[in-house]
Write a sequence for this structure.
């Protein structure tokens, strides 16, 4: 028997994915369904160098559990439970057929070039616990259907171009532990329901245009404190959380934390590392003793170190580890007064 022409296989995959993606699934599928869904993903997601050579497309059911980035269940033969495809320069839109991997518990696709909206069909994945699509080029509104994934523990959609408001029904995800929506184009307020999620320990919303901040709920001040901390770290280092430097586990927070306090001067924005002697004119500064100059420089560095400490405290990952807003204000005033005193 002659090999099946590739064009027929490709067209078959497209049609299969389109039909399956357009309707809600009422069963848990099987190995064949998972195989078709993976082939559909390969067609829709590509790179200039070719996408995942181990993902073979031919006329037979492959052992796709050995494909790179694919993890299958140990209990149910040939059923996909996880996709781990980080930093592979994947380009394209996520197709609805991903929802045909009905036993997925984990989708990890950060640091790629995915674009367009998240398919609403993702809400059909009732087993999904972890979704990380951060640092891509995704856009559109965050689908409200994600709230249907009742098992969610982690959602990370940070550093994309999502717009619109945060779906209020995300507060229905009672098992949510981490919600990261920072550095998008979100507007409006923070849904009050998020403030009563007792398992929610990490909430990242900085870098958006959120205005109402939960109408006075506890989540309001925690969001303000976190955003203020990130701003401090950005101003001190001259870097943003989305800079290319921050990858492979290195974040702006860790970048500062690893240098604090002894090496804090090494990571400052170069524009800040200049001789500074307050408002003294050149003649007066030139006549000052070396000891006085040293004391002034040490005082300035002390203020910078205190500010870095405040930024780290405010940007702590867990809300309970962040200071109260009134304490942040008091510390900021103290640092300002100490710095003003150095200027004479």
């Amino acid at each position: 028997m002659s090999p099946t022409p590739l064009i027929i296989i490709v067209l078959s995959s497209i049609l299969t994915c389109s039909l399956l993606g357009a309707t809600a699934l009422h069963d848990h599928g099987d190995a064949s369904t998972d195989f078709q869904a993976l082939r559909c993903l390969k067609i829709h997601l590509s790179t200039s160098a070719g996408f995942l050579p181990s993902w073979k497309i031919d006329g037979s059911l492959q052992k796709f559990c050995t494909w790179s980035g694919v993890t299958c269940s140990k209990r149910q033969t040939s059923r996909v439970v996880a996709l781990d495809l980080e930093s592979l320069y994947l380009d394209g839109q996520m197709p609805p057929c991903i929802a045909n991997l009905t036993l997925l518990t984990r989708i990890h696709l950060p640091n790629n070039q995915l674009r367009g909206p998240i398919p609403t069909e993702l809400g059909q994945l009732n087993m999904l616990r972890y979704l990380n699509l951060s640092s891509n080029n995704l856009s559109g509104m965050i689908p409200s259907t994600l709230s249907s994934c009742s098992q969610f523990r982690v959602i990370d959609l940070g550093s994309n171009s999502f717009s619109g408001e945060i779906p209020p029904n995300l507060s229905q995800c009672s098992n949510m532990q981490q919600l990261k929506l920072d550095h998008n184009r979100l507007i409006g307020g923070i849904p009050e329901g998020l403030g009563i999620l007792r398992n929610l320990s990490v909430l990242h919303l900085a870098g958006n245009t959120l205005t109402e901040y939960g109408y006075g709920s506890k989540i309001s001040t925690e969001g303000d404190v976190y955003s203020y901390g990130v701003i401090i770290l950005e101003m001190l280092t001259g870097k943003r959380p989305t800079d290319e430097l921050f990858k492979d586990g290195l974040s702006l927070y860790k970048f500062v934390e690893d240098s604090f306090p002894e090496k804090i001067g090494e990571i400052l924005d170069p524009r800040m590392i200049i001789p500074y002697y307050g408002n003294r004119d050149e003649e007066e500064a030139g006549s000052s003793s070396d000891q006085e100059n040293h004391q002034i420089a040490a005082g300035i560095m002390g203020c910078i170190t205190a500010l870095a400490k405040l930024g780290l405290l405010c940007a702590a990952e867990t809300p309970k580890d962040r200071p109260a807003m009134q304490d942040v204000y008091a510390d900021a005033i103290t640092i300002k007064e100490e710095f003003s005193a150095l200027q004479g």
User: Anything to note?
Assistant: The domain at 31-204 is CATH 3.80.10.10 (Leucine-rich repeat, LRR (right-handed beta-alpha superhelix)). The first strand starts at residue 70 and ends at 72. Residues 1-27, 212-217, 276-280 have pLDDT under 50 and may be disordered. The radius of gyration is 25 Å.
